[in-house]
Design a protein that fits this description.
By secondary structure, the chain is an all-alpha fold. It has one domain. 93% of the residues lie in helices and 0% in strands. Helix 1 packs antiparallel against helix 2 and helix 2 runs antiparallel to helix 3. The model has no long low-confidence stretch (mean pLDDT 88).
């Protein structure tokens, strides 16, 4: 069980880093702000989701193994931070798109 969780965690982390790199390359490569924003928002949200899921799997597997309450705290903190990041990213993306339309 632990080996399968470790493999899944590593795969999710690698995919999250890959999507984060795609978001970075999208910011650098694309010529106009709309395509940059589309790539950056989508790729980074996928990246953050994958990394958050990997931390939740880690917290669940360690909690089941050791029964330590710090892993429940890790899971709750990861969920709260994920919600904050998603809301902030969506708000900032819409604000930037609104600034582009009025300019």
């Amino acid at each position: 069980m632990i080996l399968a969780a470790d493999i899944l965690i590593w795969l999710l982390l690698a995919a999250g880093i890959g999507f984060g790199a795609l978001g970075l390359f999208g910011l650098v490569i694309f010529p106009d702000i709309r395509s940059r924003m589309y790539t950056a928002v989508r790729a980074t949200l996928i990246s953050v989701t994958l990394i958050t899921v990997s931390s939740l799997i880690y917290a669940a597997s360690r909690f089941l193994e050791t029964n330590g309450s710090q892993y429940l705290t890790l899971a709750v903190t990861a969920i709260i931070l994920y919600i904050i990041i998603v809301i902030a990213t969506v708000i900032l993306s819409r604000e930037i798109q609104g600034q582009i339309k009025t300019a």
